[in-house]
Amino acid sequence: NAGVMQNPRHLVRRRGQEARLRCSPVKGHSHVYWYRQLPEEGLKFMVYLQKENIIDESGMPKERFSAEFPKEGPSILRIQQVVRGDSAAYFCASSPQQGANTEAFFGQGTRLTVV
Amino acid sequence: LAKTTQPISMDSYEGQEVNITCSHNNIATNDYITWYQQFPSQGPRFIIQGYKTKVTNEVASLFIPADRKSSTLSLPRVSLSDTAVYYCLVGPEGGGNKLTFGTGTQLKVEL
């Protein structure tokens, strides 16, 4: 039973390019969350999605960032026109149901470096 | 979501018991307390969750006093591989989709 799979593990982009981060949740999980972690900091919530729906995007920057979780296929976090400040580790988590009393399973993250 | 406060770092030696305390003075009636562990270059991993009194699993124990304003994660007989960051989170049932991570406690275990 595979856990949360994220790819790529490492991504290097030049300023102004687009970054696409993929997340395949645990099989059977319909709730996906994206978090960003800057060096020496804790994880910061970005967005919560259920299949085909964005439930909570209060942690997403208002520009350049978008997320989707289509009916088929992985969840995608898309960052357009990347800047150096976007360099961070991006983690995806999934759960079978909502609620903080539900264990969330995290992937190993995608480390984005903007040069 | 209730804010949590925990020590920035702790040091221990192999074989010792480690107790990490988390303060959450503003915890709400329906909040649960959850602890996650994170190794370098990896995503957080669920350790344990509780609501009150004591919870124990194969990895750790969680002690929660009656007023629930704090909780203590207890790791028995730590080893070098327990070196990691430990996060204490509190959140409401059914509405806590946003896991709020603080800076956590960096536990360093030495020989």
Globular, elongated, flat, extended or rod-shaped: what is the shape of chain A?
A: globular
Q: How many H/I helices of chain B?
A: 0
Oligomer classification: heterodimer
Classify the helix fraction of chain A into a percent range: under 10%
Gyration radius of chain B, to the nearest Å? 13 Å
| Topology, number of strands of chain B | 9
Number of strands of chain A: 11
Which shape of chain B, going by the Cα principal axes?
Answer: globular
Q: Give the overall pLDDT of chain A as a whole number.
A: 91
- Uncertain parts of chain B: none
Output the strand order for the largest sheet of chain B: 1-9-8-3-4
Distance between the termini of chain A: 36 Å
Radius of gyration of chain A from CA coordinates: 13 Å
Beta-strand share of residues of chain B: over 45%
What's the tally of helices of chain A? 0
- Please tell me the overall pLDDT of chain B: 90
Q: What letter string, H or E per element, gives the SSE order of chain B?
A: EEEEEEEEE
The percentage helix of chain B is under 10%
Would you tell me the structural class of the helices and strands of chain A? Answer: mainly beta
Largest protein interface? A-B, 29 and 28 residues
